[in-house]
Write a structure and sequence with these properties.
The chain is of the alpha+beta class.
Amino acid sequence: MESTKQTNGGNTHTRIIEVINKMGIHARPAARIVRLANKYKSEVYVERDKDLVNGKSIMGLMMLAAGKGSRLKFIANGEDGAELLSEMNSLFKRKFDEV
């Protein structure tokens, strides 16, 4: 599920992504998320339940304790936010390229 909203400073894009890899968001997937997020200028936040963390922070992502089956809401603010979320969705679908 994806949505886009126009704000004063640009676009806000959101996308719900389900964690489908066996081990959830542990150190290696968190590092992959951060590496991908840092390729883009947009700010990115990740929300699980009522917790909201910076998507460019490994520690923040790991604090979400997102196991398999968790649904994460990604919020990207900026011009390249839609592209960021599309690539993020692909990373999750590939299960972070883990074996």
